[in-house]
Amino acid sequence: MIQAQLHGKAPSELTWSEDILTSSVFGLLKYLSTPNITARFLSGAVSKEFTPLLLYEEIGDIEDIEYYFWPRLKRCEPDLAIVLHGKGGTHLVGVEAKYFSGKSNTEIQSEDDMSFKEPYVMDQLAKQLEDFYCAVAEGKFDKSRPIQSVSLVYLTLQTFLPIQEIQDSLDSLERNGILEAGLRRLYWLSWKSLYAQLDCPEGGPTKADQLIIQDLRALLARKDLHGFLGYNIIEVSQLDWTFRTSVPNGETYDWFSGLREAELLTMSTGGDKE
Question: Using one digit for the tens of pLDDT, what is the confidence trace for 113-161?
Fold first, then answer.
C-alpha cells in the first residue's frame, strides 16, 4: 500500500482516508529500530494552555514501545494506543487522528454501548479519554509493567491549536464529573510536525531504518504534510563585470571602464529631474 500511494496507484478513496494515513505513518514508525522518533513526535503535543506533553521528563529514556491499532474500548474505538516503557515508568498515549474530517460527537451504537451503565460522555475525545482510563484500570494494556499515566493526543491536519474543540471536550468531561478525578491530560498535535523529526536514529541507522525513513518522508511530502522547510542558501561568487568581443581573440572590456565620474540625481515626486 505504501508504494502504491507513493506512485499514485492507490484509489482516491484510500489516498484521502484518515485510517489509511494513520496505518501508513504509524505502521512505518512501528518498524524502526528505535522508539525515539515516535516519542519525540508525541512530545511535541500541547494542551489548551500550550503545556507540552513531557514524555521524557515523566518516564526518562524510552526503552521500548508498543502499538495497538484501533483498540476496542467500552464505548469507542480510538485510532491508536501507544504504550511507552522507560526507566521512570510506563505511559500510555492514546491517539485520535483526523485528516480532513473534524471531531465527531456521535456515540457509536452497539450492543456493548447499550450494556454500558455509566453516564454517556457524548464528546468524542472526552469519551475516549475516560475509556482509556477505564481500560488501564482493568489491566487492558499493562502486558509487562503497570501503566502510571494516560494521555490522549488529538492529531489533526491543521497547524494551529484548535482551542475551542479541546475546550468542548474538557467541558464535556466536567459536566460528567470526570475532571474531578484529574482527567485533564488532553493534548493536540499536527501531522505536519512529524517530518522534521525524521532524522537518522541515534548510533547510526540500519539499512532498514534508512528505507523506512525514506518512504515515510516521501509519503508526507506527497501529501504535503510538512511545515516550512526553509531556504537553501547558495553561495555565489563575485560577479565578473568583463566581456569579450565576438571577434576571435578579441580584447576584453570592462563594463564600467568608460565611467569617469558619477553624478548624483535627485528626483521630484513626479519623477522628473530637478
Answer: 444 445 454 789 988 998 998 898 888 887 778 888 899 999 999 989 9
**What are the residue ranges spanned by the domains of the chain?**
2-222
Query: Are 45 and 153 in contact, with CB atoms under 8 Å apart?
Result: yes
Separation between Cα atoms, residue 43 and residue 55, nearest integer Å: 6
Helix (H, G, I), strand (E, B) or coil at 127: helix
Q: State the Cα–Cα distance between residues 142 and 146, nearest whole angstrom.
A: 5
Torsion from C-alpha of 222, 224, 226, 227, nearest 10 degrees: 150
Note whether 16 and 99 are within 8 A (CB).
yes
Residue 60 backbone class (left: φ over 0; alpha: ψ -120 to 50; beta: rest): left
Residue 151 half-sphere exposure toward CB, CA atoms < 13 A:
25
Distance CA 129, CA 185 (A): 8
Top-confidence residue, 136 or 243: 136
Asked if 133 contacts 77 with a C-beta cutoff of 8 angstroms, the reply is: no
- Cell matching residue 124: 468524542
pLDDT in tens, 184-208: 789 999 999 999 888 765 556 788 8
Closest to 139 in 3D by CA, of 76, 83, 79, 179: 83
Give one word for 116, left, alpha or beta, with left for phi > 0 and alpha for psi -120 to 50. beta
Q: Which long-range contacts (CB under 8 A, 24 or more apart) does 139-148 make?
A: 140/71, 140/73, 141/66, 141/68, 141/71, 141/81, 141/83, 141/92, 142/90, 143/66, 144/85, 145/85, 145/89, 145/90, 146/90, 147/83, 147/90, 147/91, 147/92, 148/58, 148/59, 148/89, 148/90, 148/91
> Rounded mean pLDDT of 35-44?
92
